[in-house]
Amino acid sequence: MSETITDYAAPADLLNDKVILVTGAGDGIGRVAAKTYAAHGATVILLGRTVPKLEAVYDEIESAGGAKPAILPVDLANVRWEELEYLAEGVDQEFGRLDGLLHNAGVLGQRTPVANYHYATWQQVMQINVNAAFGLTRAMLPLLEQSKAGSVIFTGSGVGFKGRAYWGAYSASKFATEGLMQVLADEVEGVSNIRANSINPGATRTNMRAAAYPAEDPKTVATPEDIMPTYLYLMGDDSIGVNGKQFNAQG
User: Fold this and answer.
1) Domain coordinates in residue numbering, the chain
2) Is the predicted pLDDT of residue 251 greater than 90, yes or no?
3) Least CB-packed of 1, 21, 107, 146 within 10 Å?
4) Minimal CA–CA distance to 238: which of 20, 43, 13, 2?
């Protein structure tokens, strides 16, 4: 059963002194989440594939008076385990811990019947949406254990609750994402200071949404800024003790 938190009013200092890693931070929801976390006091680690986009977010955060972010250029489509270990070592050396991990990066893949789905595209979607999220989580778990209250947020989808025709690998990857979240949440329940939950952003004005629904008027759907209350709630200490839950960012 999914839960909904849309009216959460985050204190200005909700994330003071927290270190939070955001994947897919160069665009869309990831960009807005990174800026929002920084605006509430966090030091944000920006992970993404496109350096100029990450640098633009970096500049936006600094110009707004936020703590100096860090940039991790990573192509999750081709990342190897050794690279993830190296990333974790770098975060450890720089910060000594990780307080939050937002798995926002994702790709849509094809909107086509399974009978026509390209095998290579299927593999790419599963790699970015599931395998990389698993690998990054595993690499960062020791650092999350060093936090007083570590939060891992996975990105779900409505098609990850009930499969829908023509959503192919994306739908399957979101079912797998929910499964990964639930497995992790069950493993840490009662034995760790880490909590794991997922957010279904719902219809949101992003490039992925535009690709999935090219005829849709983007003004008819929520902006990434509109859905930030849920992202703040699950990353901040007000959600300590909330574990293994699925949240809808919109009503």
Assistant:
1) 2-248
2) no
3) 1
4) 13
Residue 99 burial (CB < 10 Å; 0-12/13-18/19+)?
A: buried
Tokens of 70: 């860090």
Alpha helix stretches (DSSP H) within 107-155: 119-126, 132-145
Q: What separation in angstroms does the CA of 50 have from each of 2, 56, 161?
A: 33, 10, 30
Residue 247's DSSP bridge partners are 3, 199
For residues 161 and 251, what is the distance between their CA atoms, to the nearest angstrom? 16
Q: Considering the candidates 37, 170, 231, 233, report the single residue annotated as catalytic.
A: 170
Q: Find tokens 């003004």 and name the residue.
A: 219
170 tagged catalytic? yes
HSE, CB side, 13 Å, CA atoms: give it for residue 173: 26
Q: How far apart are CA 24 and CA 114, in angstroms?
A: 27
Quote the CA–CA distance of 129 and 107 in Å, as a whole number: 7
Contact (Cβ atoms closer than 8 angstroms) between residue 213 and residue 33: no
What's the pTM value of the predicted model, to 2 decimals?
A: 0.94
CATH 3.40.50.720 fits 2-248, yes or no: yes
Each residue's pLDDT tens digit, 2-36: 787 778 989 999 999 999 999 999 999 999 999 99
